[in-house]
Amino acid sequence: PLPTQGSLLYLDTLRAAFPQALAPRGTALLSWAPGHPYAPAGWPLPSLYCTPSEAGALPSRAAALRVQLLFALRARALRVLEAGLAAELHDALAALHTGWPGLAQDLALGRLSPQPGLPEDVRGRLQALLAPDRVRAAELQAECARGFEGIVQRLWPQLEVLVVGTAHGAEQLYCDALRQADCKGLPFYCPFYQAAGALLGVNLWPEEPVPRFLLCPDWAFCEFLPCPAKEELRTVLLGELWEGREYELVLTARPGEYRCRAGEVLRVAGFHKQCPVVEHVRRDSQALSVRGESITEERFCRSLCRAVGMWPGARLVDYICVESALLGASSGASAPHYEVFVELRGLRDLSEGQRYKLDQCLQEDFPIYKSFRFKGSIGPLRLHLVGAGAFARLREALGSPLPMPRVLREERLLQLIQSTVVS
Length: 423
Prior knowledge:
The protein is an alpha/beta fold. It has twelve helices and 16 strands. It has helices at residues 4-17, 61-74, 86-109, 120-127, 134-145, 151-155, 171-180, 297-308, 352-365, 367-375, 390-398, 411-418, and strands at 27-30, 80-83, 161-164, 188-189, 192-195, 198-202, 213-215, 221-226, 246-252, 260-272, 275-283, 287-288, 295-296, 315-323, 338-345, 382-385. A seven-stranded antiparallel sheet has the order 5-6-7-11-10-9-8. Strand 12 and strand 13 (295-296) form a beta hairpin. The radius of gyration is 22 Å and the shape is globular. The two termini are 44 Å apart. 39% of the residues are buried. This is GH3 domain-containing protein.
């Protein structure tokens, strides 16, 4: 659970920026916490939520998000829509795109349709909380029939803010996609910075586009390694940080736990009442390195987005990249290389020339990668398109409410994503 101080700081910040945000039952939750009843994000005011806690603990991620979406749709006067991850908000709205006729029917009849991953006893308990609402069902049908651009504000006209648990790294892809389409016109607020299961900071500036977090000194024991690392690894403490510099986080979450390098790199953006304010820069723990080139997830994502911008009509939904060694003999006899799996909207296939654009962008952005490619010690990158919804299914198979790694190292997950390749 989060420290109570963190919860109260969040609630006070939310109320100050969005005065009606703390209305009773005015917040809906879209978040999956499998295996245990979920008290939404540990807040001390559960009466804020219109979402039954049991809905988020279902064994199936897809079922949990659909049930939570149904309860959210009942509440027309919603003020806050909260998701553990931006990807969860995206996947719930994708379920709305494809399943709105069934959701409208459930609203009209006050029922919860049977579905995989929704046990009958749980369905009965949740259905007892519903009542027929034909007016709201008709409104849902009318708005979805108009299309889905700006659908969130049309369905919930009093909505003030979207709260997401994580908005950096590849999760930023989902925030950007939602801003451009379903959630157009609404602000996103990422309230907390967490690493290795520990809460480290809170965002006191909800209306700023780039999340900044105030590091709170008594929530966990933090040390910092200056970047770039020197030969002698000596950590510094909170009071020794310099504005404008980057540091790798070293964390001891609670007394008696292991001290570890979290793989997170932060930039000190300033100070607030002598406490440092940081921005997340990258995760060095997620890096590609078939020949020691060490391309981080965030920098790879920037190159990929640049390549996608050269494919007319394409929008990147999500991606993963694996080192060819994970494929074994199926990767062929070529030199070690990257295998990239992408889900796109607006484009069904790519020419060989378009596929090469990504390799070209990587060579332009990373001289060391270009050098290895020139020598032939790294082979040509291979790009695969996967079917719609492939990454939502991959997140379910991962079985974790944490952000999905985009540098994939698990063979079972690789086999799943390979099964969805369309070209």
